[in-house]
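Why run this: before we spend reagent on co-expression, it is cheaper to look at a predicted model of the complex and decide which construct boundaries make sense. The entries below are exactly what would go into the expression plan.
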Amino acid sequence: MPMNPTRKRRLTLVIVVAVAAALAIGLVVYALQQNMNYLFTPSQVQSGQAAQYKTFRLGGMVKAGSIQRSKHSLEVTFTVVDADGAMPVEYTGILPDLFRDNQSVIATGHMDGARFVATEVLAKHDETYMPKELKDAMAKAHAQAKVKQAIAQDKSP
Amino acid sequence: MTPELGQLALVLAFLLAIAQGLLPLLGAWRGNRALMAVARPAAIGQAIFVATAFLILVWAFLHFDFSVRYVADNSNLALPWYYRIAAVWGAHEGSLLLWILILNLWTVALAAFSHRLPDAFAARVMGVMGLVSIGFLAFTLFTSDPFGRLLPMPVDGADLNPVLQDPGMTFHPPVLYMGYVGFSVAFAFSIAALLGGEVEQAWVRWARPWTNAAWGFLTLGIVAGSWWAYAELGWGGWWFWDPVENASFMPWLVGTALIHAQAITEKRGGLRAWTLLLSIFAFSLSLLGTFLVRSGVLTSVHAFASDPRRGVFILIFLTIVVGGSLLLYALRAPKVAGGKPFNVVSRETALLIGNLLLATASAMVLLGTLFPLIGDALHLGRISVGPPYFGLLFPFLMAPVVLLLPFGPFLHWGKADGGVLKQVALRAGIAAAACAIVAAFFVQGQLKAIVGVASAVWIAVGVLLYALRRWRDMPRGRRYPAEMAGMLLAHLGVGVFVVGVLMSEALSVSHDVRLAPGRSAHVGGYDFRFDGVHRTVGPNWYADQGVITVMRHGATVATMRPQKRTYAHDQVQTESAVDAGVFRDLYVALGEPMDANNIGGAWALRLYYKPFVRWIWGGGVLMMLGGFVCAGDRRFRIKRIAAETSASAATASPQESPA
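The model came back. Tokens follow.
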């Protein structure tokens, strides 16, 4: 069937749009895969849930009295806790204004042995506000830990 | 007693909004002039009551009326008067009231400048504005009353969030809202056109100045927000791909597509359906922006703690607006299709490609922003996508826009001549390549910076070539009509913005250092000498203020005084110090004392050298100016409705391009 100019033009346009869309979707999927950051709490990390991810976000509360500055550099260590776990964190740099004992924080980074090495630490601007996502994650981790405990108690006697 | 009057004013405004939302639409449908005539007085009455409520809230802040919960939560006796006024929009309830006030300002402007429109059309536009207003007033009255009492009355209030105690914050939200809400006008025009089934394209000409003005405001609002984040958050960044920033950026991207699509629809009659769809999306994304900022469903650097009922209300409202208008669109859009055919090489094609790229970019930002919600819904776990996602995709989508930009004005409508394009490409290309080679020597071969210079020169030369051609070819007085001048300004702004972004990203140097008093650090060719920290006080804070002397080749360049302020309730806020310059900013923020008990000792400091960072906002300001200049074009104001509409109806053909 011979193509009239209008048809031909439309076909060209459809092909261009389709190729562009395919390219865009491919790029988006790639970018998402590369940059998805999961949030885990210390107890979830210790139970191995984060093992498959190189970089992830660690969320919890700063354990009171755990913040320690190095004497000579900007290195600082502190412990992030949730109801059932604790995780030592190492960070080099300046901490946010609201970073302090018992403050909820989210740190991005990776595991190095048993320590979490953070590249970024966020504390919220509103002192009374805990991010919903962190609150949910901590509640979930706690529920899981309780179930495990219950199972363990069931088995022990 | 006065706060109750404020509430009463809001209730009366709500009733008038119902009158304005329903009666004129009914009148336009039944052809009843009396009902249509309700629109203007109802809108003006509503605006007076809303303004009264707003002023009562301002009054309550100025007079420390802590019996009003909102005032007690967001101000205290020590807060200076200018920040007490800014505190009106410092939290949820007041910013909603500001939103409504601005909606009313736009509506009053519409009432004043819509006399030349056909009565039925004007009545429909005003009616749609009234419907939007009903939604927001109901939201305020039922979930977010700014005048709620707090008994017993506290002696002193809490405080305005210290992050908001900054000149940028007094300015940023109102301007941003002018833009957000301004898109409601373009939305109202589109819905009115769909409702009326207008076959002519005249409505687009009437909508264009409004859309351009709204876009100008939104641009300025985003620029102000970015500047504020840079100066106030203490991280030295100008954009974080934070959900709240994305919330304002998505309507901007769609709005940018919209103002270009409107040009096609107005001049050629084409892409009508697409233009209608973009107006609906621009406003829907503005609403979604409110939803994202106010509901707290997403973790953000500046999310407010909030009440889930509000989120549900906005979600329902959003569903009605988006669902309703898309349904109307599906039913009526086929009837408004039309326009002249165009060739592959034409201005239409170039604008269409730009439009698709901008729309895709907006969808990409939306996906990244909402991804945590999607992951949650699909039980994938707690996921978020970081800035690298956006940083990877955005340049890909925008690079073709930059490449196309110089050609746009040279392309003719319908069918363009390829010869002139080659000439433009050759000249702009040679200029860009030459500047890139020169730049390469200055930027130590940093590819990003070289690309930045090349793209900026490419755009700027394209703009200049076109300006020159107009100068040569057109008689005096007709060379640069406002619409044309606005376009040239805005396009030049894109070039300035691009060079700012890429140069500052490639060449910025940042150091977190630990310095004892008297010691120096070398950053970006400058020596930053730390001269210690002392205590100072302000109206409602005390601060540890550092003194940093910046030297270059032994000569003092600047003395900088960053602060670590402590406001009421031990809220700490970093005030960075910036030494601004056309080609570079020096930026210093105080971290923390190495020994908490000895503020006179060593401190952690954040030192930045940021070249060309100011060009980012400069480009934004140029774009904003372009939007306003364009909106002021006389052509949009001249009454030529009767003659044009009949002519265009005659030439309109059913060859609508795919939308």
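The longest strand of chain B covers residues 526-537. Chain B has 19 helices and eleven strands. Bring this page to Monday's planning discussion.
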